[in-house]
Amino acid sequence: QVQLVESGGGLVQAGGSLRLSCAASGRTFSRYTMGWFRQAPGKDRDFVAAISGSGGNTYYADSVKGRFTISRDNAKNSVYLQMNSLKPEDTAVYFCTAAFRPSGLTVVTTDEAYTYWGQGTQVTVSS
After folding, report:
1. DSSP for 42-65?
2. Which of the four, 38, 115, 121, 124, has the lowest number of CB atoms within 10 Å?
């Protein structure tokens, strides 16, 4: 079992920045691909970014590429999402996710591939 707890959400003006954090339980964190998804009111949950267990491979949704950066610290069992140049359309609940991929090299972008989910943290970007 892996438990995920997100933090760092909040209210920010357009053009601002936020850094989301996700703390994971367990002793094999490096064997999990980690991802971030988001869900705006009335919309489907969308992929945002993913990072392989080793941290060497990342992947981003086109809508956030160049603005968001995913990273991880395996010594701290944590994954982060640095969000810059935020836009009102980035407003959503952001979820941290984990998928067991022991090679440490894989990134996955579909929500059905992820087994563990956090409770989510609200990000609101005002115009």
Report:
1. TS-EEEEEEE-TTS--EEE-TTTT
2. 115
- Report the amino acid identity of residue 106: T
Pairing of β 78-83 and β 68-73:
antiparallel
Nearest to 5 by CA among 103, 79, 88, 100: 79
**Which residue's entry shows tokens 């009102």?**
88
For residue 106, the SS3 value is coil
DSSP-derived pairing of the beta strands 10-13 and 121-126 = parallel
| Cα–Cα distance for residue pair 59/27, rounded to 1 Å | 24
Per-residue tens of pLDDT for the chain, all 127 residues: 899 999 999 999 999 999 999 999 988 999 999 999 999 999 999 999 999 999 999 999 999 999 999 999 999 999 999 999 999 999 999 999 999 999 889 999 999 999 999 999 999 999 9
